Every structure is written in structure tokens, then in C-alpha cells.
Amino acid sequence: GTASMNSTELDDAADRHKFVLVSPDGGIPHLPLPGPIGLPYGLFWHVPGSPMVGGLPVPPGSRDDERFLLDVVRQIRAKTCADRRRIWVTGASNGAMMASAMICRHPNVFAAAVPVMGVRAGYPGAPCRPSRPVPVLAVHGLQDPITPYGGSGSGTWSYGVDTAMVRWARLNGCRPKPRKRRVTGSVVRFDWTGCRPGGRVVLVRSRTGGHSWHGHPTPFPFNLVSGPTDMSIDLNKVLWRFVSKHRLPRPRR
User: Fold this and answer.
1) 7-37: pLDDT as tens digits
2) Which of 103, 162, 204, 240 is an S-S bond match for 113, by CB 3.0 to 4.6 Å?
3) Among positive and negative, which fits the CA dihedral 73, 78, 84, 90?
4) Dist CA 142 CA 159 (whole Å)
């Protein structure tokens, strides 16, 4: 949607690297953020097996966003020249939760995923059991006030990023201990090794970043509640370097 384009500037990255960018909206209008500012959340994704932020139930009759996104992919395949083996999914916050769910449930549709500020690896009502290893690049800031790095103990964010990454490493058959490499003064990268073919798992963690898309300032008024933005890396460059290396395996004959 428009808000995502404003905060991520992925449209510029698509022009630069020549990939097709599709930015659909979730189907649930969300209540305003609590407090005197009353900022609207915008549109919320109906994540399979998950309540909304704060543990609120999904409104009855909400659109099936899983089916909607699969329909979007069908339209991409039918109406664009996009390589069907190189369709990737990313999202921020609740969009990252939706992206995580889609690769759990449809690993033969998406070649890789980049969940930002919201990586998940299944919910009690919808466990993650992909039929193949799926490349995952997760990005999160330690100063995130909305989806705290360590989890919130209830609702949608009942477990933290480290737990999610351990689960993905296990699902993809990686060694349990990742390699750690400092990228900038505030950013550390964790790479899990020994994964099954096609199952790369990576976490980019910012010590200073909040609920933001690193390298791209959060627009007003959402910057009032999102915490700091880490400008020491350009997340779009990191994202493109990761996804561009991955495509779906060739279908068996």
C-alpha cells in the first residue's frame, strides 16, 4: 500500500534493480493506536491462525488474505513477464507476520521471504510445517516498541525473534549456532550454516533500530511511535542481495 511505499522506498529499489513490485493492502481496517495521538494503524493483514495486535479477535467476515495473496500471485503470473520461479515475499510488522505465514503454508509459491519487524514461525492454531526448506532473511531492531525483540508474552507476539529464528533454523536443517558478523557499529548479522539445500536462514539485528525500515526514515506521524531508525545500512540493498540469489526448485517431471 501507499504507507509501505512511503516508509520503505521499495519502488525506487525496484526501478534500480529491474524487478516487478506489487504492494497490496491487508483487508482489515484497524483501530487507532491507543494514547492521545490516536494514530491509525491502516489496514491489517488477516494472518492465518493469529489474532490481531493486542490479541484482538479478527472481525467476523474478514477477507481471507491468504487466498487473496495467492490470487495476487496468479495475476502476476498471468499478466506480467515475471519469472514464476522468482516470486519473493516481504512485509513489515503485521505484514512480516503475513509473509512468514505464507512461506510456512505455501513454500512452493514463494522462493524466499524477508520478514521485517515481525518474523514468525507458526502459531498455536497454525503450526509452521513447510514442505521444503525456504530461505528466510529476518530484520529487527532491539529498540522496537511495537513488536519487542524479546516478545511480549501474549497474543500475536507471544515469542521473540530469537525463538522464531531457532525454529526456522530447525525447519531448514541448519546447524543450531549461527555465525555472527558485525556489519556496522550498530548492526550485527547472524548466518545459520549447514542448512539443507535452499534453506538459508539469516537475521540482521540493529542495536539502535526501532519499528522501522533501516536506512529509510519513518514518515510523520508514525515516527512519533515507532522508535529510532537505524540509518547505518540500506535495508533495500540487503533485501535485494538476499532474494536475488534464490529461486524455486525446478518442478519434478
Assistant:
1) 688 889 989 998 989 999 898 876 554 444 4
2) 103
3) negative
4) 14
